[in-house]
Amino acid sequence: MSDNAFGAALSTDIDTTIAHEARVYDYWLGGKDNYPADRALGDAIGQHVPAIKTMARANRAFLGRAVRHLVGEAGITQFLDIGTGIPTAGNTHEVAQQLDPQARVVYVDKDPIVLAHARALMSSTPQGRTRFIHADLHDPRSILDHPDLASTLDLGEPVAIMLVAIMMYFPDSDRPRDIVAELLDAVPSGSYIAITHPTADFAPEAVAGVTAAAHAAGISFHPRSHAETSELFAGTTLIDPGLVPVAAWRPELTDRPVAVAEAESAWYWAGIGRKP
Predict the structure, then answer these.
(1) How confident is the model at residue 261 (pLDDT cuts 50, 70, 90)?
(2) What does the pLDDT average to over 247-266?
(3) Which of 35, 70, 90, 163 makes the best surface tag, with the fewest CB within 10 Å?
(4) Integer Cα distance of 210 and 43 in angstroms
(5) Could you give the CA distance from residue 130 to residue 105 in angstroms, rounded to a whole number?
(6) What's the pTM?
(7) In the prediction, which pLDDT does 263 show?
(8) Is residue 11 part of a domain?
């Protein structure tokens, strides 16, 4: 067991017989840190959404574009990346430190397999700094009060909070809007929050099948509409282009611009809000 010192102890045991969302996502991205149970669920979801691997990659590509915008245009050099997932190419610190070697990043994930790979997330430039916190977003204080957060980020200066493909694991009964609000309360004016969220707005029947498959595997999965996702940005002002399909968010920041007709083929909403 790993004790985060500010909340309940988190298990460090890795059960490869049960599908886990981080490992399923790793499978869709073409990674190697997944097991038969993860691949089985990934394929079951793929029966409902044949393009699921493309969608996962579109969501991952948003992360890079968002970080490039936040560092290059908004001048942000501090990131709190929650629900990090298994390290892969283009992690937040890699993108940020290419633009500003002094950028600092704190990663957070509750999955013990991410903890096992934390060293890859802490390969900082000499000028910058990265840390990994094994904690659960259900308890925001376990993150915000963690000594590694205070030693890495200056919460008196703007921070970008990255919630990429994480809030769908929180049903309304978990009060996800309150969780996001608590994070935003901890950072100053001029901070940002980036969120992507799967939706049933484009294909209700297919996403209903995905939801059922996830729940059957014991994974909480809750797609949200445009209006429901917008509520997660309460207290911020959405920057251009607003809350849009993930592939349509600032496509010019990637190597291959995404055509408008292609934008809705990835069933996630994406946006970045600025705290006034």
Answers:
(1) very low
(2) 69
(3) 90
(4) 11
(5) 5
(6) 0.89
(7) 57
(8) no
- Pair type for strands 192-198 and 244-245: unpaired
User: Residue 150's domain is classified under what CATH number?
Assistant: 3.40.50.150
Residue 262 makes CB contacts below 8 A (sequence gap 6+) with 247
- Determine the 3-state secondary structure of 44 from DSSP: helix
Range of the domain at 266: 21-274
Structure tokens at 195: 């969120």
- Distance set, CA 96 to CA 65, 125, 161 (Å): 10, 10, 13
**Number of separate domains in the chain:** 1
pLDDT tens-digit map of 102-126: 999 999 998 888 888 887 778 889 9
The number of CA neighbours under 13 Å toward the Cβ of 53 is: 13
Helices (H), the chain: 21-28, 36-48, 52-72, 92-99, 112-116, 118-121, 140-144, 147-152, 176-185, 204-216, 226-231, 260-263
Largest interatomic CA distance in the chain: 49
DSSP designation for 202: S
Cα angle, residue 219 at apex, residues 236 and 132 outer, rounded to 5°? 60
* Residues 90 and 64 sit within 8 Å (Cβ to Cβ): yes
Reading the block at residue 233, the tokens are: 């940005």
Distance between CA 161 and CA 19 in Å, rounded? 27
Task: Count Cβ neighbours within 10 Å for each residue of 148-187 and write b for 16 or more, e otherwise.
Answer: ebeebbeeeebbbbbbbbbbbbbeeeeebbebbebbbebb
Distance, CA of 166 to CA of 177 (rounded, Å): 13
In a domain, 8, yes or no: no
Q: Rounded CA gap, 236 and 99, in Å? A: 25
Task: Quick: pLDDT tens for 177-226.
Answer: 999 999 999 999 999 999 999 999 999 999 999 899 889 888 889 999 99
